[in-house]
Amino acid sequence: MTTDHIVPKSVYYLIFAALMAGTAITVAVAFVDLGAFNTVVALTIAVVKATLVVLFFMHVRYSTKLTWAVVAGSVFWLGILLALTFSDYLTRSWRTYG
Amino acid sequence: MLPDTMHAPGGHQAVLAHHFDDLEQQKDAATFGMWVFLVTEVLFFGGLFCAYSIYRAWYPEAFAAASHSLDIVLGAVNTAALITSSLTMALAVHASQTGQRRQLMIFLVLTMLLGTLFLGIKAVEYAQKFTEHHVPGPSFHFEDETLSAHAQMFFSLYFVMTGLHALHMVIGLGIMTWMLVWAWNGTITAEYASPIEISGLYWHFVDIVWIFLFPLLYLIGRHA
């Protein structure tokens, strides 16, 4: 795991093509009625695109374990932020009293 | 390991700050620092995405209708512009690592042009919102009166989220101008490419934020 790893240009072009394809698919799928799954599909594609950018454009695929830990930490803390907030706001209608 | 010439007795290489053992350690520290900053940025935008999710869960009809009024073509073109700018940024990093100064400058300029195109299109969209009275405030008016109050909530989030994203783009353009000067005056070399690399991390992060903003703001309610 060397830090002076130079990512070949071909990898960048491949990722670029994947990101553009992902964008086209996202737009196309938005016009199809999948009910609640429209959001699921859109967010899944967005997460895949973001992961490609992080791993290849941002070189995390070739980075130190410390960088991996920081990236994982950001996802973890974002998870806490969303999970704890949603567990309040999105469950308020579940109340059966008062 | 670095070649011995960089550990020449009596002084460090000019680009190596005195508190680092070698360039590799210096680069690792710079990368680490940028990533820690990006963690705070993830949580900064994360709070806004969290607010968006809650209001959208509460008012799905108003959010779908308001989203439908955004210009999907301009939004898609901007997404393509930003993804392409991420490619040119990645190629700029490649050029800096291989010591191709001329190519580095070309790719930095291309990245800035695409970033400027993005901001220009965003300005056109904002201007449309003003003529449509879709800017939250006293003159706000939404076509479907029954959804007006909650549609205004959507547009508030739209302006805060895209506005803060655009601010990050403007800062990114400033950083790229700085990097262009450093590329031009020869500060950036194959051995000292880390300023371009960590500036690239910031640019790619801003691209990632838009990757989530585009479907969540422009594409909900298109099938309705």
Which features characterize this protein?
heterodimer, A: mainly alpha, 3 helices, B: 224 residues, mainly alpha, 73% helix, elongated
Helix content of chain A: 55-70%
Number of helices of chain B: 6
Helix content of chain B: over 70%
Annotation field: number of helices of chain A: 3
Most strands sheet of chain A:
none
Q: Work out the strand percent of chain A.
A: under 5%
| Secondary structure: number of strands of chain B | 0
Give the biggest sheet of chain B: none
- Secondary-structure element sequence of chain B? HHHHHH
**pLDDT below 50 for ≥5 consecutive residues: which ranges of chain A?**
none
Description of the structure:
- The complex is a heterodimer of chains A (98) and B (224).
- With 98 residues, chain A is an all-alpha fold.
- Helices cover 69% and strands 0% of the residues of chain A.
- Chain A has helices at 9-30, 37-57, 65-89.
- The longest helix of chain A is centred in the last third of the chain and has 25 residues, at 65-89.
- Chain B has 224 residues and is mainly α.
- Chain B has 6 helices and no strands.
- The N and C termini of chain B lie far apart (60 Å).
- The chains are: A mainly alpha (98), B mainly alpha (224).
- Chains A and B meet through helix 1, helix 2 and helix 3 of A and helix 1, helix 3 and helix 6 of B.
Strand and helix map with partners:
The complex is a heterodimer of chains A (98) and B (224).
Chain A: H1 9-30, H2 37-57, H3 65-89
Helix pairs in contact in A: 1-2
Chain B: H1 23-58, H2 60-68, H3 72-97, H4 101-131, H5 148-184, H6 194-218
